[in-house]
Amino acid sequence: MFKKILLASDGSGHALRAAHTAVKLAGYDKGGEVTIIYAINGSASKSDVLTEGDPHERVNRRKERLKKTEGVLQERGVQYEIRIVKGDPGPTIVQYANDHSYDVVVIGSRGLNGLQEMVLGSVSHKVAKRANCPVMIVK
């Protein structure tokens, strides 16, 4: 059982499966706490600014992507918080995990940007190589 879990999510199907795994690791009401981290890279952030001029609408749209992930945690009564951060997802997730001493990072094997993963190497692979704690990659 893990007490402090970092769950990387972008709202994709793989991230939702990772959320189910994070719930199991938290031990359902056994005191595990989950931080959902959503890292937004620079190009996505710029695109959001161009398509959504209102900053509040951008924040709401980003939170909306995490609703299903939140639902999984709420359904099982797992305590959680959400952190939306800006930066290249791999290094940003690693830095956050290392700076906050998590027991484990749970991340989906693929995210919303499949092309970037194929060309640059997957976010999950980068996190697994550089995080100072165990990393569980969920297919």
Brief overview, please?
The chain has 139 residues and is an alpha/beta fold. It has seven helices and five strands; from the N terminus they run E-H-E-H-H-H-E-H-E-H-H-E. The chain has helices at 13-26, 42-51, 55-65, 67-75, 89-99, 114-120, 123-130, and strands at 4-8, 33-40, 79-86, 104-108, 135-138.
Portion in strands: 15-25%
* Main sheet makeup: 5 strands, parallel
Query: What is the fourth-level CATH superfamily?
Result: HUPs
Q: Output the radius of gyration.
A: 14 Å
Name of the level-1 CATH class: Alpha Beta
Decide which structural class fits the backbone: alpha/beta
What count of structural domains? Answer: 1
Low-confidence segments: 116-121
Order of helices and strands: EHEHHHEHEHHE
On the 0-100 scale, what is the average pLDDT?
84
**How far is it from the N-terminal to the C-terminal residue, by CA?**
20 Å
Instruction: Kindly state the number of beta strands.
Output: 5
> And the CATH topology?
Rossmann fold
Q: What is the tally of helical segments?
A: 7
